[in-house]
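Reading is simple: each integer encodes one residue's backbone shape. The lines below illustrate:
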Amino acid sequence: MHDIFSGILLNESNLNVVIEKVLILLNKMLDNPVAIYSSDYDCYASSEEELVSFNIENGLKRYIPEVLTKQQYFIQKREYVEYINKMQLFDGRYFYLVITEKNNQLDDIDFAGMEDAILTLQFALMRLSAEEELDKKYQKDLEYRLLAGTLSSEEEDEVANILGLNDTDGLRVVTFRLLPKNKSGRFTSEQLRQTEIVEKELLRDLPKKYTTSNTNQIIYIYKKDEQISKLQFRLKLEELQKKIQSNLDKRNANAEFTIGIGKNVKGYHALKESFTDSKIALEYIHVIRKIIGDEDKSVVDCSKLGFFRMFVKIADKEELLSYVPESLQKLYEFDQQKNGELIDTLECFLNNKQSLKQTSNKLFVHYRTVSYRLEKIKEISSMDFDNPAEILAVRNGLIIYRLIETM
């Protein structure tokens, strides 16, 4: 048997054919179906045309055949008895070799005969996995460079051809980002490990072809589907965010999962614009939370930011301050000198439709305290809450102050 399986490996250059031949030979030897499954229980290869689903049941037990063997086996009973060998590759990767006792019972001599077959399969799978990993990293690099806009026009055409993107496609980029809740250790090994776990979770819902990762972020190219509205798309992402965040919390990952949605663009040559937009949404998500008064906001659509985008593009603090109304500047200076809470109270009041009750509930203070602070605000700034134009300028000014805090 050693010579037969070694001969297959030495005489066949196509590793997928090696695996196919070994499974067919094992099927003939054992007169039972033989299949290989990934760690996610997806069927990788099988001796049967009709694929059978596989999973590990609670009743899994170790099985020790009465022959000398280097391999470890497990046994479980579903529809039929299944013998399972967990084939370790590298970097924690593994596959399951499953022999289903459908036609004949296995005996000890069968396990002796499988010894060299498993070693051959293990070697072929290691080689294939290494090649696939290299291809994956190469494609990821190309995809990221397409998004970052570092390719020539001709190179973009080639990468788009690989990805199956057309110049007439309606596209938008979604960036998923994992950040530590304690605001430190952005690129720790633990965070990068959590990012890998999250990527696997996302790939259950998103097409693998259009999803790539880079350090602590996962990037997805969405092709417009006429059957799905913008609202439905955003709601789907919000549900996805809640599910991933819940899983992170269950793992005590101490990480925050946020999503930035770029604008719609036509054709892959404009993907850089959408990618940039999605990153802007994430960079200023804490500012946006303050603006809308929702600290749990974790999905931001850049197309909904409106005039806010104009302020984001201004890098000079003095220029930004020129857009802040004088009334708000006076109030801000007073708060800075007295270490006060008037700016926060004003922001909360405006975010809650100028309702004393809602503002007091949000700030956890008595409504009379809010009323007193509002009178103080009017006294210092001469602000007129009944003037829509002035209040709009004040709200813009509050946005600018939040932006300046991030600079």
In short: The two ends are 69 Å apart (CA to CA).
